[in-house]
Fold this sequence. Notes:
The protein is α+β, with helices and mostly antiparallel strands. It folds into 2 domains: 5-94 and 112-232, no CATH class; 245-279 and 299-372. 32% of the residues lie in helices and 23% in strands. It is built from 14 helices and 16 strands. The strands form 4 sheets. The chain has an 8-stranded mixed β-sheet. The protein has a 4-stranded antiparallel β-sheet with strand order 7-6-14-13, with no helix packed on it. Strands 4-5 form a two-stranded antiparallel sheet. The longest helix has 20 residues, at 318-337. It is globular and about 65 Å long. The N and C termini lie far apart (54 Å). Residues 375-379 have low confidence and may be disordered.
Amino acid sequence: MVTASDRCGVLPKADFQRLLDVLGAKGYRVVGPVVRDGSVMWETVERTADLPIGWRDEQEPGRYRLEQSGDGRLFGVVHGPQSLKPFSFAPREALLTIERSKNSFASVPTLPKSEKVAVLGARACDVAGLAMQDRIFLRDAYADPYYQARRNSMFVIAVNCTRALATCFCASMGTGPGATSGFDLALTELETVFLIEAGSSEGNDILSALAIDPSSPASIEEAEANITSCAMSQTRRLNTAELPGALYEAHEHSHWDDVAGRCLACANCTMVCPTCFCHTVEETPDLTGQRTEHARLWDSCFTQEHGYIHGKNIRPTIKDRYRMWLTHKLASWIDQFGASGCVGCGRCITWCPVGIDLTEELPALLKPSIRTQQKPGQV
């Protein structure tokens, strides 16, 4: 939410190119939403015209469509399948190389090359997802150096939502639709201007370089009213008041069988989720057998191989895997990291081929099970 007028300015939409130019002059490669293959994907953005001007997305369980609205909005598309996760936790990255010598071997870490990247168009749910990834990969004294190298080079430009999708439920998760922290700049798109708020010293530097007019109380009030209206328009919500305990108690609930009968274990939900961090490692030797690359790549708890440990698969069925995913996301994640692993973006609903909706599955699991209602001796 916009709260500090001394850290805010107003940029006319007609002058939006100035923001891209200032970021470029500061050494950032700007990445933003670009229409590609029927959705929006993160791509390098050099001109305002590269953005999805006039486009908007319609999302339902198992359905995603883009359409031209002709309204001229730069950020009318809420989001596509990609969150901020790929920028800090790469889908595939080499961790080290190992080379044989005559009587020994040598291993060399392969930290990512430093590149200043400004991500333009991050939504509040994605900023919250990035903050959760920070808790996972930068926790205490055990920071992941590969994640940290990428994270340190990121400049996050959030765009506050003034339109909710049918699959959004960030308001009930306390993660949106307005970004409150974790950003360097936050934009709110109004009719003819952008309200820009700085959220860090780096953001203040960009705001100063833009040399734009300060925001007025009226523009701040309009922006906050639009964000509040967006929150109130959300039709989906997740009641987390009974978590994590109630979900642990539902471990043997009969509804797990029902959802497992629909789930394809395709892993789409975990691939698009802003917070999922399951991964595996692989070795890629060269043809001589003298050198190999040790790499980390995204994996999913929905795959059979991910549950294979020391000669036994500990999650052999789809029921086991879906239960593991949902219980971790909405219960044990709270015990581990102090917050739910769900940020209410709704991507898992949209990109599930069969439209499984966790805002429907959780309430079903928190109701008394048919099994627990049966009297002794009943089948």
